[in-house]
Amino acid sequence: MTSAQRCGLRRKFPLLSYLENQGWKPTAYGDRDEVYGRCPLHFDSRPSFYVNRRKQVFYCHGCGQGGDVIRLVERLHHVDFPTALSILGWEQTSNSQGLWQDACDFYRHQLRTSVDAESYLHRRGIDHAEVVERMGIGYAPGGCLRGYLHDLGYSRSQLVASRLVDGQGRDCLWRAITFPIAETASLYGRAIDVTAARHRFLARAKGGLWGWEWARQSEKVIVVEGLFDLASLWQAGFPQAVALLGSHFLPQQQAQLCDGRSRTVYLCLDADENGSGPRAARLWSERLANQRLRLLTVQLPQGYDPNRFFSEGGSAAEFSRYLEEAER
Ligand SMILES: [Zn+2]
User: Fold this and answer.
1) Which is nearest to 213 in space by CA: 181, 165, 251?
2) Does residue 278 register a pLDDT over 70?
3) Ligand 1 centre distance from Cα of residue 139 (Å)
4) More confident residue, 30 or 39
5) How far is the CA of 199 from the centre of ligand 1 (A)?
6) Could you list which residues have their CB under 5 Å from ion ligand 1?
7) Which of 34, 95, 229, 267 has CA 20 to 30 A from 211's CA?
8) Cβ contacts of residue 247 below 8 Å, gap of 6+?
9) CA–CA dist 318, 306 (Å, integer)
């Protein structure tokens, strides 16, 4: 890519608008063209992230990272250059929301007709119709999304740009339970077969904490890794749960928890054999320590996450005892 092309992209996707769409707010206006605020790329206790409005570039004096909007998207979402461009392009298309909504509706409908999907959900202990409905859970059978969306009038290039379908016309999510990620018009797919790659996301930003809009008013918030964990907690009567969609906090998720309210956060991350859960919990206890948060680590039995805990018969009362234990 020539520098002229890169300049063109900077004009097409203005850095400051992108940041503001992501919920970033400048805390102050500096000299001339500069605004600054907290860095979205690292844990920033005081504003060290500078944006030059004229040049549409950023530099952070805290973590030393800098560049243009594409660089920011790469760093923010841990993606490569082509994916960063696709994320930017997708967010700008006016009918991308409609296309995403239509795909979600299609998947939701497929769930009601698939025996395989139904028995998979049953095995994972997800059987409350209202939770399935509220989370928008669906099923991607594979091999028929393109035709369906084509009949609704979407062009092949729109479908490819959406990443719902690849360049060869194949569904990107297939034989997978689907969960919509409304914030970024994305989808998460959990393969129902043991052989395939288990976790699939559309090439898109993950956004903030899944479920935050319902949990944010709670004084106690339970943070879990995945959407099956969240579904299990909702079913068991713990509506104040949110999901990371992975084992790492993204800057935006961190900002949500650190919005200035006092709250207790229970980290209920996977206790697998490799210890990534407890390690992540320790790391975040350190990083969030100076906020108005009380951070507690919930230790489920070795090898259990909330989904497995409940699907193997764990009760709400037992889970509450683990929450209480975390208090000590
Ligand atoms: Zn920084």
Assistant:
1) 181
2) no
3) 39
4) 39
5) 29
6) 39, 41-42, 60, 62-63
7) 95
8) 225, 269, 270, 276, 277, 280
9) 11
